[in-house]
Every structure is written in structure tokens, then in C-alpha cells.
Amino acid sequence: MKTEPLGVGLVYIPGLEPLFESPDVAVQVLELEPQVLWRYFPNRDQPYENQLEFLKRLQALPQAKTVHGVGFPVGGSRIPDPRHIPPLREAIQTLNAAWASEHLVFNESVDAQGNPVQTGFFLPPLAMPSGVDAACRTIQAVSAKIPVPFAVETPTNYLKPIPGEMSDGAFTAAVVETADCGILLDLHNIWSNERNGRQSVEAFLSEIPLDRVWEIHLAGGLKYGDYWLDAHSGDIPRPVIEWAQRLIPYLPNLGAVIYEILPAYLPRFGLDGVRRAVDEMHDLWSCRCSAQESDNPFKNTEPKTVSGDNRLTPEVWERKLSAQILFPSDYEDELSRQLANDPAVALIRELNRKFRLSAIISNLRMSIRLLMLSLDEASFDRLVADYCVSQTPDRFAVNESHRFAEYIRKLDLEIPYLYEVLNYEITAMDVIADGQARTVPFTTDPQTLLEILGRGELPIELPTADYEAEITPPEERAFETQSLIH
Predict the structure, then answer these.
(1) Is the domain of 263 the same as that of 386?
(2) Cβ(226)–Cβ(183) below 8 Å
(3) Could you give the CA distance from residue 26 to residue 302 in angstroms, rounded to a whole number?
(4) Who contacts 90 (Cβ-Cβ below 8 Å, separation ≥6)?
(5) For the chain, which terminus, N or C, has the lower number of CB atoms within 10 Å?
(6) Does residue 364 form part of some domain?
(7) Are 117 and 326 in contact (CB under 8 A)?
(8) Same domain, residue pair 259 and 384
């Protein structure tokens, strides 16, 4: 399929507005992750709701638009919640997006009793023919219901290859050709996979159909122990730029080159750093379709994979891998033991815990600060670890925060003001969600209490009196995120 050449762009996050509004229009594409804008109402028949007025303001910006899903991936055997399709379709239509994409991974499985569980982390699908079939069914279940072409993103995979699995490139090629969809090629992901001991970039590119690459993602990463993480943290590594220089001339249907950075890294990296990345991508964009031949120029010198155990199904793979991340005591068979001995499983478990804590902090910042000021580091870490073991993850940070608050309440910790601050922050979440003002009680002046916590100090022996704090909806409700965990 031919795609319209849109140009160079950015994934939208708050703080990038000056670049999107700049008169030189160096940023030609705005890619939106719509789920981070959704309000989530778990008790409604339709729990997901767009912030439609904010979408319309984004639509009015001069950039072309694309939509990139980050919460309902399509690489596994379980079809994503179909209730996410209507708001996804609404976002696509409101933005007049050129195409939509999602990740070729899974984040939902079942536990030993067959109950659905969120993994809290994007996990790699089974790279075997049965995994290809499962991913294609899932992709087609989503792509058939949206009004624009659909592509899948090539993921990071920290795991060691298992015996008999297809190479990353061969699996990707089989999926996109069978499902008849495009490729969102995240070059930093593929380079990270090579650094972490999986297929080389050269071999991966030799195996995928280059004419199906509609979009390239570029980003920065960081070293974490023995691994290189796809952290979206800053400068694009030079080797990734060089791979893009080699690759882009051979992509006849390339429609966009997009830079990603997470909000947490933007203050340090700055708008100047993002603009440097945009300028680098313009240099890369100028190489588009300059090759004189259409053949794939990349070579695969790696040995071909021998066919593995076809009795391993995607459902079993997803359940056992999820179990090792969420319930690490389960070593019921050889595959479970093999996964348990893969150091990447411990890495994912640790990252998962950090992501969940980050999601909780986004809503319960003062409560977490009070806990950290009141407990020593080991006790706080143990509290978070115990919570993560006792509670499976949730896709939305608002739910994760409510569940963490319930967990803390049951502990009945003897920390002054903890449950008042916790009640205040949980109530604030509810006010933001439904727009209804509420009051919460305090046994001391809440303004003084919160100011002390804001300075990073422990509140001690504050004057006692009965107070009520009224929490009203903010006048500007745009971009109040539910913070997906992914």
C-alpha cells in the first residue's frame, strides 16, 4: 500500500507545544497516543472517554496527524477489550489521522485459574507459526473496525531466544504479510534488541518487507545493569542514526519519521534537545527514496532457526511468561524454569515494579512522599514489593492508585496524617474524573500540611483542629491523563 509522505514529527506530550506552534513548522507530523488522554470510568458500560475538546484543539494545529495506540496491543492471543474501539475510532476521525498503529506485543493473559490479568509490561508474543496466526487474528479484529490503514510497531524484547522460535525479523514479516498491514519500524528497539543479545539489525532488516515500512520511530535509551533499555530518554544514539541513513533510501512507502521522548525526561533534555532531534530527522528524511534499486540491500549471515516444539501454543506461552513476571514462585515445567533462569525476567519484574510505582506517584505524590519520609529505604521498598506481589497490575494508573490506597489503608500504618493526605489525593482523583466538587476532613490545617510535604519535610506535631478542604474541578481540564502503564 502507498502512504502519503507526511514528513518529520513528534509524539505529542505536554510541554512540546512551542515546537508544534512554531512558525517555521519544522515539526510536520503530530502523533497522538489517544489512550493517555482518556478518562476512565470503570463502572460504566463504556468506560473509556476522549477529552474531545482537547482533541479538537490538537486537530487545529497545522501538522498532519497519526494515531499510535499504547494500551491495547495486538501481538497476543487475547483480543483487546472491544470497548476501546469506539473512542479510538473517534480520536482517529476527529484528528483526521492518516493511519493508526499499535504494538506487536501482549499485556494481558490469564492466571492459573483462568482469570484475566494485566501484565503491567509489554511482553513479547510467541515467535512461532501458531503465534503468527494468533497475532494476525488479533490484528484483524482491531484493524477491521477502524477507518484508516493499520500498522504494528516492532517491539523491544529483553528475553533470550527460546529453542525453535523464529527470528525477530522473520516473525515480523510473517505477521504483517499474513495480516496485510504496515510496519511501524522502531529502529531504537531493533538496535536495543541487538545490544541485548537478540537478532542483529542487519539480519532483521534483511528479513522484513521494506515496502511495508510506513513509519520509523527514533528515540534515546540508557544502560541499566547488563541491558540497554528503550527508555525514550534523550539523544538518538549515533548507531541508530547511521542505520536510519542506510535504511531510509530503500523505503518506497515511508510516510513519517517520528521522535519519542517521555515526559519525565523532557525537563532535562529540553526543547532545544528535541529540536536537535527534529533537525537530525530532517536530514534523514532528505534521503528518502534515493536508492536506485528496490531490492533489499541488507544481508542475513545468521544461521536459520530450526523448527521448535509446535505443541507450545500462544495461550500457554503468554500464561507462563506472565506467571514468571507476576507470580515468580511458579516453576511447574521446563519452560517455566527456563524463563525463571533468564535474567531478563528479573529485569522485567523490577522495571514493572518501578513503572507501577511511577503510575501511583502520578496520582498520590504527597502520600508517597510522606511514606518515604516516614520509612527507611528498605522498609519502603519492601512495602512496594509486597504490594506488587499481592496485587496484579492495572492498565490505568487511576485504578492502580485506588488499589494501592486500599492496600495502605489495610496496613493501618502509624504515620501521622498519612490517611488524611491519602484521602485527600484519592478524592482529588474522583473530582477530576467526574467534575463533582467534594470536601475532605483534616485534623490540622491542610494548607500548612501540604506545604511542608511539598518542601520534602516531615510534618511533626502540627496544631490540632477540625478542618475541611474543598476540592473543586480545575477550570482547565485538558490533558488530565489516566496514565496508562505500558
Answers:
(1) no
(2) no
(3) 40
(4) 50, 52, 55
(5) N
(6) yes
(7) yes
(8) no
Question: CB–CB of 121/352 below 8 Å?
Answer: yes
Record the cell numbers describing residue 334, joined without a space. 521446563
Rounded-to-integer distance, Cα 264 and Cα 270, Å: 11
Give residue-wise pLDDT tens across range 183-220.
Answer: 999 999 999 999 999 999 999 999 999 999 999 999 99
Q: Is the distance from CB of 310 to CB of 130 less than 8 angstroms?
A: yes
Q: Region of 332 please: left (phi>0), alpha (psi -120 to 50) or beta.
A: alpha
- Kind of pairing between the strands at 29-32 and 64-68: parallel
Count of structural domains within the chain: 2
Neighbours of 109 (CB within 10 A): 26
Is 309 part of any domain? no
- Answer whether residue 81 shows pLDDT above 50: yes
Please give the Cα distance from 45 to 8 (Å, whole number): 39
Does residue 38 lie within any of the structural domains?
Answer: yes
Residues facing 256 on adjacent strands: 7, 215
Give a yes or no: residue 334 inside a domain: no
The model carries a pTM of 0.92
Using only the alpha carbons of the chain, give its radius of gyration: 23
- pLDDT tens by residue, 150-178: 999 999 999 999 999 999 999 999 999 99
- In this structure, is the dihedral angle defined by the CA atoms of residues 226, 230, 233 and 237, taken in order, positive or negative? positive
